[in-house]
């Protein structure tokens, strides 16, 4: 693991009397791509603005390379921000937009020319250098904003929802480019998004936030496969959850009752009287005949709807207790996936270990 570059220690922020961030503790490692993920209003942008120096914390510390920078103005911080709107200077050419930071620092002309040329090549915009931002596509504007920020050689680049203005296809392309660029530059990226798919595909680690607090920090795989609670599980992808009563917990096995069914599952967690069994739609197997069910862990239900999604289909199934669950299956021409009939009885099972058990938070 690389060294810690930036630490947030008990960082809190109030606007008027509203507590927007509550005692945030976070270490960001040198060279990593870290994403702050959470619903609108949870405080992601506020964290970036505090790190960038555009807001002052109510309490707590911001430390870069061991030094408290709470009282440093933005220009004295080793950070640069790429805003959602890109905030390019409309009357300046691409070249001048990128050169701006160096000109402000009175960098010699020859150095500026060389650095801007390198930056333009890095973001593949050399042939557009004389255009104005309005003559560029959204993706190109975003690359200008990134080039303009990295030319100042920040230790940390702060990116605020910077792909959200792009259409789906361009956004996918830019996600890949941004990640490659980050690897090439070796600069730490702190990226803000409310798009879970984007967070999963780009990040080394993800910080899931909710209402001004951190819910979980982990790699994309950890967050997806071992969510700490229902909020994280449901925010990061789809999840079917079953609230059960704990009947017994011994020898690392839990007996969990859901309606009249008792599931017997491996459990290394400390559960109290209620717990949640969580199953992702892709972890359910669906069968039309009971003989084909290959597990003790199954539900029965009635098919409500089939949703075609290109490579997968989603089956919406109503269980006996009226709970609706979702199962997804790969779809190909040979499969009989579309042979399902609305209203038919189906069996849903999962292989033990594919579920996640969560303690129930009252
Ligand atoms: P989004 O994804 O919508 O950008 P976010 O997670 O980035 O949301 P923030 O922009 O950090 O959320 O805002 C968190 C909360 O703080 C919101 O309720 C917002 O209204 C409030 N807030 C942010 N800036 C200010 C301010 N300058 N004055 C008062 N309230 C503010």
Question: Which CATH C-level class of the largest domain is it?
Answer: Alpha Beta
Q: In total, how many beta strands?
A: 20
- Counted by DSSP, the helix tally is 8
Low-confidence stretches: none
Provide the residue-averaged pLDDT.
90
What structural class do you assign from the helix and strand content?
Answer: alpha+beta
Radius of gyration: 25 Å
Helices and strands, in order, run as EEEHEEEHHHEHEHEEHHEEEEEEEEEE
Outline the biggest β-sheet: 6 strands, mixed
- CATH level-4 homologous superfamily of the largest domain: P-loop containing nucleotide triphosphate hydrolases
What share of the residues does DSSP label as strand, in percent? 35-45%
Total individual domains: 2
Rounded to the nearest angstrom, the distance between the terminal CA atoms is 36 Å
């Amino acid at each position: 693991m690389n060294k810690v570059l930036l630490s947030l220690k008990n960082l809190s922020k109030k606007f008027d009397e509203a507590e927007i961030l509550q005692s945030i503790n976070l270490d960001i490692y040198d060279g990593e791509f870290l994403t702050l993920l959470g619903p609108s209003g949870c405080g992601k942008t506020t964290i970036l603005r505090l790190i960038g120096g555009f807001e002052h914390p109510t309490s707590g510390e911001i430390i870069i390379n061991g030094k408290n920078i709470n009282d440093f103005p933005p220009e004295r911080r080793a950070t640069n921000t790429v805003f959602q709107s890109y905030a390019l200077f409309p009357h300046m050419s691409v070249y001048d937009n990128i050169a701006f930071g160096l000109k402000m620092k009175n960098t010699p002309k020859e150095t500026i020319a060389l650095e801007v040329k390198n930056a333009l090549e890095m973001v593949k915009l050399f042939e557009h250098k004389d255009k104005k931002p309005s003559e560029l596509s959204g993706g190109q504007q975003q690359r200008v904003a990134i080039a303009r920020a990295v030319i100042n050689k920040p230790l940390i680049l702060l990116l605020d929802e910077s792909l959200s203005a792009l259409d789906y296809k361009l956004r996918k392309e830019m996600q890949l480019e941004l990640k490659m660029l980050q690897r090439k530059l070796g600069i730490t990226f702190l990226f803000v998004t409310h798009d879970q798919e984007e967070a999963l595909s780009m990040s080394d680690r993800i910080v899931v936030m909710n209402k001004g607090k951190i819910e979980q920090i982990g790699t994309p795989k950890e967050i997806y496969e071992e969510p700490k609670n229902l909020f994280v599980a449901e925010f990061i992808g789809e999840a079917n959850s079953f609230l059960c009563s704990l009947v017994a917990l011994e020898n690392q096995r839990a007996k969990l009752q859901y309606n009249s069914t008792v599931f017997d599952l491996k459990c290394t967690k400390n559960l109290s009287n209620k717990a949640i069994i969580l199953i992702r739609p892709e972890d359910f197997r669906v069968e039309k005949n009971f003989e084909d069910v290959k597990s003790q862990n199954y539900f029965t239900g009635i098919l409500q709807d089939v949703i075609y999604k290109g490579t997968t289909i989603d089956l919406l199934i109503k269980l006996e207790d009226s709970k609706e669950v979702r199962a997804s299956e790969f779809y190909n021409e040979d499969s009989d996936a579309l042979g399902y009939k609305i209203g038919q009885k189906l069996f849903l099972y999962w292989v033990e270990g594919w579920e996640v058990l969560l303690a129930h938070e009252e």
